[in-house]
Amino acid sequence: MTEKANFPDLVRKKPKHRGKKRVLFHFVLFTLLGALLIAGGIYGNGKLRAVADAQLDAMRETLLSDTANALVKAAAEANAESNAQRTKISGGLSSKARTVKSTLSAMLSEGAGNEEAITYIVDTLIEAAPSRLTAEDEATAALKAKLTESLASQRESLISQAKTRVEEQVGALKMSDVRQSLNQTEKDYPFMYYANILLIAGAVFLALGLFLGYVQFFAGEDFRKKTADIVEPMDYLLPFFLGVIVFTLYPMVRVFIMAFQERYKLTGEFNGWGLGNFNDVLFGVNTKLPQALGNTFIYVLLTVPISVALSIVIAYLLNQKIKLRALFQTAYFLPMVTSAVAVGMVWKFMFNGDYGIINWLLSLLGRSKIPWLTKPEFSMAVMVIYGIWDSLPMTIILLISGLQNIDEHYYTVAKVDGAKAKRIFFRITVPLLAPTIGLVLIINSISAFKVFNSVVVLFSGTPGPMYNMYTMVYYIYEQINTGLEYGRAAAASLILFGVILVFTMLQRFIQRKWNYV
């Protein structure tokens, strides 16, 4: 008798759901991460408070001395009838300045309060004010008596006013002002400057961790599995989102803020909020932005249409069934994997007025040599020629991809109907390739608006032979590297962003009018 097959062993077991372990892992991860971020924020706020206290201690002595001295001096000089008398009163007050300063420092170091310190300063200055008024005549003696009596009667009022003003100025010091005054080279600068951000991020992660803890220990099995299915993609997306936030979103937001901070410095200091940066780059004396905008627009309008038109023709030819087609496609793509600086140097030698290959070819046609790189009138031509060549590889690859997605049946039917190659190209290929053409137009336009490498390499680091080839990105680079005007550079960046956005939207509007079929 044969044994029965063990059918249960042949049945594929259902994989065990890892929801419980996944939720537990993220509970621990987010809780620890949130706790660490909150600890960093608390530590940063503590250090920032210590810096604020140090600044208050440093300014307290000056505030007390200057405020009390200004009030007593104004009250004393109000009794004088001539400049000579005011000079003597001021001299009497100045004679006690060094004594007041040294005594005040000792009092503050011993823990004296504001009222005690102000009382000492006011009493000392009231006594010193009439000290230079010697009784040479009755008028001076009368003034001295009057001054002594006036200051004595105003003593309590002067002390009260000085105390109020000092407390107002001390209270006006905000933590945001202290944060902005921090030096980036200072120890624990990131913790102090981003303390509030760390606290917010820590609170978010801690809240997520606590929620997952509730799911892990108190929720039902089904809810735990659903939560695990939601959490799993976070393992893969979170690093990407962090990278986007740190390296893309934050710089964009920071540039937008910096554009409205006038005369911004890397230390975080700036003169105030407003549109001063935009006014400087657009209408300032000797600003190069209008020239940069004009050059960039001309470059875009010349380079993009020509490069796209040439790419369509070349891509169409490379897409035909010819021998060594893969070799030709690779040859056109090789510039994409070559160093831009190295390629630029080669073109610089090609454009050389004395021994460049371009002038050599022109000489074969009987033309005289052209000073491509030394005469301003040829600078735009140099840029456009190089820009067209530089944009061909990627454009050709994209267009070949679009051509290969066109159904061959269209061509078969057209050939059966007797259509010529020219008619097939303009009636079938170009219309069906229109979406790809629109894409490469937008990509090439954005790239052309950001032209920079070719300017630097072709013209040896200067914007043209006579500084006539400023482009938008070169202008931004110069503001940062040479002028150290970071606010103006940020404002110019926003202007460039607006120009590219408007240009792109205009292109998309025009493309909607195209008839693709």
Q: Which regions are unreliable across 5 or more consecutive residues at pLDDT < 50?
A: 7-15
Largest sheet: 2 strands, antiparallel
Record field, number of beta strands: 2
N-to-C order of helices and strands: HHHHHHHHHHHEEHHHHHHHHHHH
User: What is the helix fraction of residues, given as a range?
Assistant: over 70%
Shape: elongated
Structure class: mainly alpha
What is the rounded distance between the termini?
74 Å
Strand order of the largest sheet: 1-2
Number of domains: 2
Layout of SSEs?
Elements: H1 7-10, H2 19-77, H3 83-95, H4 97-109, H5 114-128, H6 138-153, H7 155-171, H8 175-180, H9 189-193, H10 195-217, H11 221-259, E1 261-262, E2 272-273, H12 276-283, H13 289-318, H14 325-333, H15 340-350, H16 357-364, H17 379-404, H18 408-416, H19 421-449, H20 453-458, H21 472-481, H22 486-512
Antiparallel strand pairs: 1-2
Helix pairs in contact: 2-3, 2-5, 2-7, 2-10, 2-11, 4-5, 5-7, 11-22, 12-22, 13-17, 13-19, 13-21, 17-19, 19-22, 21-22
